[in-house]
Design goal:
With 551 residues, this protein is an alpha/beta fold. It folds into four domains: 6-174, 3-Layer(aba) Sandwich (Peroxisomal Thiolase, Chain A, domain 1), CATH 3.40.47; 177-226 and 391-436, Aspartate Aminotransferase, domain 2, CATH 3.40.640; 234-363, Type I PLP-dependent aspartate aminotransferase-like (Major domain) (Aspartate Aminotransferase, domain 2); 439-546, Aspartate Aminotransferase, domain 1 (Alpha-Beta Complex). 37% of the residues lie in helices and 19% in strands. The strands form five sheets. It has a seven-stranded mixed beta sheet with strand order 8-14-13-12-11-9-10, with helices on both faces. Strands 1-7-6-4-5 form a five-stranded mixed beta sheet, with helices on both faces. Strand 12, helix 12 (352-355) and strand 13 (359-363) form a beta-alpha-beta unit.
Length: 551
């Protein structure tokens, strides 16, 4: 069956005039005040287009040129332009056609739409129909108005509200499905029913959406559909393994081996198992640069080791660990390996078969998906023999007064109403990651990390945790600044528009091992820019001076 063609926004451009009219200046023009405006409207400033003979088409031209440059689009490839405006330059020719002429879009036809505040949405919907019908492949929609040309600056009720500006989007056909937000919204609007609980059409669509997401997740990790259990997050997935597998397979005298680098979510469940079973919890200690010595690890895995739990990528250091090699060591001694994939899955390709993972836990929001959805991969033969983690609706085959038989995999681990909308969003997020490609993701993150790390090395009093090699950080830079508490670092950087995390990052044993109690942590993703990296470095460089150290 052919995939449905939809219209996708593939680029955005914008323009704002340089002149800013603030409330103080406006209060000199009309009987108003900053307090009056802020208490009733909440607008502090607005942009105003100044200049003889400049109208809406001037701003639309700037927004379109910005769009064409960002998307590397030839203006001759644009087939149609729709401009949503209530302030056209003139009635004829249309503002859209003027913009086409000014920007070199000579193959496009254009027209204006006038629907006030709904104009852009009306234009967007109109343009999408041309895309979906297959008659056009590249359409630009512009929203632009020079409201200052029609506003009465003697009316204090209206003149503070409006300013001037323009934005433009490029629409192109797509068969890739919905984006994350659209996928969640589409589920609630079109498929919102309880999966697996009805045979009517709506319930069947809900089931198909939920199981389609499971199939996508399974393919993403190189697993089978019935080896993927949906959970809320990585933490729940790890607890599922601990309570269901750990308590039923670990006994007194056994050993569980974890690393010092683990997130608390991969420490506390194993502490619980050891307390309840009498097993012993042992730690793999990392080297000063955050690496693991495989010879030392091999000595720790003995015949008494029943389970090894290890993060694939540290959420503090960004260090990737040799899971495949450690899995082979564990299997040689008859132990299973549990992999915390929360930090690795957004950055590197993860194949559970190639890793030799028996279990792998992950979170949807780390993969650019919604919060509240995650998953657990479990090797089928292990999941099959494990008791359920939770009991209740839909995880059973039959229930009597005396007992119950459980549903087949993976449903025996999914009690109660599932997060079907979250699963739909996760499906879309994985499609997005696949379209971007891990080669692109990796190269961008390494480039940004390298740029920031090299510049920070020249900044006095700044100390980077972990490796000196940027490629061993997976986009994560944890650091301290002499004399400045990490929480102060975070607050000062936030005032510069740079948002980082500060604290112990739910990894207190690691920080204690490295000789500190908390750090600041910057995390780069492929969508960040060189300007983001430079702004981060500039903010860090000025920290001590702004704290009063005079440096």
């Amino acid at each position: 069956m052919a995939k449905k063609k939809t219209a996708a926004i593939t680029g955005v451009g914008a323009y704002l005039p340089d002149y800013i009219l603030d409330n103080i200046e406006l209060s000199q023009m009309v009987d108003t005040s900053d307090e009056w405006i802020m208490s009733r409207i909440g607008i502090k400033t607005r942009h105003i287009l100044k200049g003889e003979g400049l109208g809406t088409s001037f701003m639309g031209e700037k927004a379109v040129l910005d769009l064409l440059e960002k998307t590397n689009t030839d203006p001759m490839d644009i087939e149609m332009v729709i401009c949503a405006t209530v302030t056209p330059d003139m009635f004829f020719p249309s503002t859209a056609n003027l913009i086409c002429y000014k920007t070199g879009m000579k193959q496009a036809f254009g027209f204006d739409l006038s629907a006030a505040c709904s104009g852009f949405l009306f234009a967007l919907n109109t343009a999408s129909k041309y895309i979906e019908a297959g008659t056009h492949k590249k359409v630009i929609v512009i929203g632009a108005d020079k409201m200052s040309s029609i506003i009465n600056y003697n009316d204090r009720n209206t003149c503070p509200i409006f300013g001037d500006g323009a934005a433009a989007v490029l629409l192109e056909p797509s068969e890739e499905g919905y984006g994350v937000l659209d996928a969640v919204l589409h589920y609630y609007q079109k498929d919102n029913a309880n999966p697996h609980r009805g045979v009517y059409e709506l319930a069947m669509r809900a089931t198909d959406a939920h199981e389609g997401a499971r199939h996508r997740v399974a393919r993403f990790f190189g697993a089978e559909d019935d080896e993927i259990v949906f959970t809320q997050n990585t933490t729940e997935s790890l607890n599922l393994v601990a309570y269901s597998y750990g308590l039923s397979h670990v006994k007194a005298g056994d050993e569980i081996l974890i690393s010092t680098m683990e997130h608390h979510s991969n420490i506390l469940p194993w502490q619980m198992v050891c307390r309840q079973t009498g097993a012993t919890l042992k730690f793999m200690e990392c080297e000063p640069d955050g690496s693991l010595d495989l010879y030392k690890v091999e000595q720790l895995i003995t015949e008494r080791t029943k389970l090894v739990a290890l993060t694939q990528v540290s959420n503090v250091l960004g260090r990737q660990y040799p899971v495949r090699e450690i899995a082979a060591m564990a299997h040689k001694k008859g132990a299973v390996i549990v992999v915390d994939g929360a930090q690795s899955t957004p950055h590197i390709p993860v194949n559970v078969r190639e890793l030799g993972a028996d279990f792998l836990a992950f979170s949807g929001h780390k993969l650019y998906g919604p919060m509240g959805i995650g998953g657990l991969y479990g090797r089928r033969e292990l999941l099959d023999e494990m008791p359920p983690f939770l009991s209740g609706g839909e995880m059973i085959e039959t229930v009597t007064r005396e007992g119950a038989t459980y549903a087949e995999l993976p449903h025996k681990f999914e009690a109660g109403t599932v997060n079907a909308a979250g699963a739909a969003g996760l499906h879309a997020a994985i499609d997005y990651v696949r379209r971007v490609g891990f080669d692109t993701i990796h190269s961008r993150e390494i480039a940004l990390t390298t740029r920031a790390l090299e510049k920070l090395r020249s900044v006095p009093h700044v100390h980077i945790l972990g490796s000196e090699k940027p490629e061993e950080h997976c986009g994560i830079l944890s650091f301290t600044v002499d004399g400045v508490h990490p929480h102060d670092i975070s607050e000062i950087l936030a005032s510069d528009g740079v948002n980082i995390r500060a604290g112990h990052h739910c990894a207190q044993p690691l920080l204690q091992h490295l000789g500190c109690s908390s750090t600041a942590r910057a995390s780069f993703a492929f969508y960040n820019t060189e300007e983001d990296a430079d702004r981060f470095v500039a903010a860090v460089s000025s920290l001590r001076e702004r704290m009063g150290y005079g440096e």
